């Protein structure tokens, strides 16, 4: 009776686990919804704020994956310790390679976090500009109202307001131009870090995987137990993979930077050169569905009330139904 009961419980836990959304997915949804419904979040930087929240989720998830990978390597190593000499030695080296891979993931997560900081600079700078824009818009709206009155008493006030608005526009023009330059500078900085980290991770993981292949090629699947003589070879794998990782340099990548081959005016008409938003419209809509309704909150819709009419509240976000 014990085994059937155990099997039933195992099946129950598996079904429950498959019906509960992943913790990382719930955390990501929560981060997005907090940003969407934060009354202090300016509408002008909302999209970038959502991107930053998603990037934070990428970092957190990769760090969690790296911890799980280290735990995987540890438990695999502990299992192998009790096996025959050849399997024990080989599993020891496999566990080491797995652990090194996890360390590379951790380092990559830290680099992604660094790249995120550059994008935060754009958000912070533009957030500081929002009150200035709102003040200009409020003056502009007041001028529009006075023009509709079309009387002499309003003329004097209109002249003063026009002068004030022109002065504000001159003073703020430098900040707006600086923002335009800052956006381009920081996007370049952020994704230079991002893609450099991605290349380093990919190439170093390829090095580890290559030595994993070498290790497995030396393994005798028929089993040789205590007569095992392959320790020197597996030790060499460990030593050489560490040396290869240490010797890796961004100045000498394994895969050289490609050169573009442009195809003239007809090139842009090809189906594989379309906009990301067009070619992946379905996939992007599915992401929206998985994270609930990502419409701005009523508070955000009211952020620039002087510049646009008040809109009705959007529907409340719904939690995705587990399948």
Walkthrough of the structure:
This protein is mostly helical and 323 residues long. Helix content is 72%, strand content 0%. The protein has nine helices and no strands. Helix 2 runs antiparallel to helix 3. The longest helix has 66 residues. It starts with a helix and ends in a 22-residue tail after the last helix. 12% of the residues are buried. The C terminus is likely disordered.
Q: Helix tally?
A: 9
Q: What's the pLDDT, averaged over the residues?
A: 81
Bin the helical content: over 70%
Q: Structural class of the helices, strands and pairings?
A: mainly alpha
Helix-strand topology string? HHHHHHHHH
Q: How many strands?
A: 0
> What integer value in Å does the Rg equal?
29 Å
Name the poorly predicted regions: 292-323
The major sheet is characterized as: none
- For the termini, the CA-CA separation is 32 Å
Strand portion: under 5%
What is the 3D shape?
elongated
Features:
mainly alpha, 323 residues, single chain, disordered C terminus
Question: What is the topology?
Answer:
Elements: H1 2-19, H2 23-36, H3 46-81, H4 85-149, H5 152-217, H6 231-247, H7 276-279, H8 281-290, H9 298-301
Short description:
The protein has helices at 2-19, 23-36, 46-81, 85-149, 152-217, 231-247, 276-279, 281-290, 298-301.
């Amino acid at each position: 009776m014990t085994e059937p009961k155990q099997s039933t419980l195992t099946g129950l836990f598996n079904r429950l686990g498959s019906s509960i959304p992943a913790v990382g997915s719930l955390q990501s949804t929560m981060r997005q919804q907090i940003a969407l419904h934060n009354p202090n979040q300016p509408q002008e930087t909302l999209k970038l704020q959502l991107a930053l929240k998603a990037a934070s989720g990428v970092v957190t998830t990769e760090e969690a994956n790296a911890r799980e990978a280290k735990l995987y390597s540890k438990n695999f190593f502990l299992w192998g310790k009790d096996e025959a000499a050849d399997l024990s030695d080989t599993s020891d080296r496999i566990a080491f390679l797995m652990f090194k891979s996890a360390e590379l993931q951790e380092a990559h997560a830290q680099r992604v976090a660094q790249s995120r900081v550059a994008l935060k600079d754009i958000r912070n700078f533009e957030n500081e500009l929002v009150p200035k824009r709102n003040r200009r818009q409020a003056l502009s709206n007041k001028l529009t109202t006075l023009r509709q009155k079309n009387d002499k008493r309003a003329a004097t006030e209109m002249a003063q307001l026009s002068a004030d608005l022109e002065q504000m526009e001159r003073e703020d023009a430098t900040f707006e131009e600086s923002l335009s330059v800052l956006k381009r500078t920081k996007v370049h900085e952020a994704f230079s870090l991002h893609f450099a980290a991605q290349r380093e991770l990919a190439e170093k993981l390829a090095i580890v995987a290559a030595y994993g292949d070498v290790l497995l090629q030396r393994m005798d699947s028929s089993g040789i137990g205590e007569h095992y003589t392959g320790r020197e070879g597996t030790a060499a794998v460990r030593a050489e993979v560490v040396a290869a990782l240490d010797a890796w340099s961004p100045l000498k990548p394994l895969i050289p930077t490609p050169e573009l081959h442009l195809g003239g005016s007809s090139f842009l008409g090809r189906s594989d050169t379309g906009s990301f938003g067009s070619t992946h419209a379905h996939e992007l809509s599915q992401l929206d569905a998985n994270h609930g309704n990502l419409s701005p909150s009523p508070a955000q819709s009211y952020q620039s009330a002087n510049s646009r009419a008040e809109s009705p509240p959007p529907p409340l976000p719904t939690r995705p139904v587990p399948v």
